[in-house]
Amino acid sequence: MTTSSTLSRPARTDLSALKFNQVTVVVVTALAVLLTLPALTLLLGAAMLVGAIAPQVSPMRAAYRVLGRPLGLSPEVVDEDPRAHHFAQGVGSTFLLASGLFTLAGLSLVGTVLGVVVIALAALNLSQRICVGCLMYFQYRRLRYVILKR
User: Fold this and answer.
1) φ, ψ dihedrals at 30, nearest 5°
2) Taking each helix axis from N to C terminus, what angle separates 108-128 and 132-149, rounded to the nearest 10 degrees?
3) DSSP assignment of 17-61, as one string?
4) Which of 31, 133, 148, 149 is the most buried (most CB within 10 A)?
């Protein structure tokens, strides 16, 4: 049964979980790129894709729940719609999956460039709170609104 109070409750986002994800993406992708381990890139990309499509069963969220507290992280939940972050995670996962596939196909330079792009964007989000994937999401929503409004 839903009530008007549950319908009006804003969506919530755990900023500590986002930070955990960004650090994980930077570290794991850097290892995968430096050691030329496309399987690691593909594994991380797949985990991120699952989280983007079905956040409730996200392997990244499960890792945060297990490792967050031992690493000294505590939830920092804010009233913010997580859909932009899920979209950004989907974009990052696409880049990582492409990186792994290009590397497996013998195009290591392309795979490395895609991996470095993911590292740079995750580091930008982590250090400056600039989420390029989120900006892409909001532009997509704006464009969709303009097209549907006609």
Assistant:
1) -60, -45
2) 90
3) HHHHHHHHHHHHHHHHHHTT-HHHHHHHHHHHHHHHH-GGG-HHH
4) 133
Q: What is the mean pLDDT of residues 57-66?
A: 97
Q: How far apart are CA 52 and CA 87, in angstroms?
A: 6
Say if residue 4's pLDDT is above 50: no
Residue 137: pLDDT band (50, 70, 90) is very high
Fill in the amino acid letter for 21.
Answer: N
Res 70: pLDDT: 95
Which secondary structure element, helix H or strand E, spans residue 77, and what is its range?
strand 77-79
CB count within 10 Å of CB 61 equals 19
In SS3 terms, 101-129 reads as: HHHHCCCHHHHHHHHHHHHHHHHHHHHHC
DSSP 68: T
